[in-house]
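thought: fold this chain, then report.
action: predict
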Amino acid sequence: MIADRQQQILQRLNQAGKVLATELAEELGVSEDTIRRDLNKMGQLNLLRRVHGGALPLQLDVPDYADRLEKKDPKKQKRANQAVSLLKPGQTIFINSGETCRYLALAIPKEMPLTIVTACPLVACELVHHHKAEVILLGGVLFKPALRCAGAIALDMVRRIRADICFMGICALHPEHGITAKYIEEAAMMRAMIEQSDQTIAMGGSDRLGLISNHEITPLKQLDALITDKDADPTMLKLIKAKNMAIILV
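observation:
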């Protein structure tokens, strides 16, 4: 896992948008050489972008959710269909936000009785005509870039619910650093959903494998399965499978 000092560096980087080695050395009470070694190592791990005198955030390709809704993606549809095949009538499930999760909501059979819990208003809206599904929309502050609710209210609601399965779309999965997220609010919600679920199924494209983002969610050992593309890199899949995680290719 990421060392405590490096985690502090990531937090400052996320807050300020840039960090300087001189300032970090003073704030953290270590030498500039130590900070430079940390930054170099973190750059090699794709945690940040190393620049002269400091570092900048590593920009993952995570555009605003609303900008992507009109685009059809057959791969996301396949992942969603595979996820639906794992469902059993009467289950309670968490669905987080994101495109694949929206595809999942659309793919759920209308005649299947389920209790579906989500923090994403758009996912909930896709389930309006599922008359046999009880839909619980988690409250809280609307986090606009990803169109989902977050914060203390949403977290409290999650912790009062037990689920059979948590379905989570991912933006970054690394064999050693686990699942990470761009936003701290997203990471907190996903951690809570995982803790309250009997099983956790991650869904993500092959382009998300091997990436690391700013905020830790969970190590891979806490996940039960990954649904990803059949054209994913075999070496990466082998490293993931070594963490005792089932892989479903579609």
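thought: worth noting. Confidence is low (pLDDT under 50) at residues 60-66.
final: tokens above.
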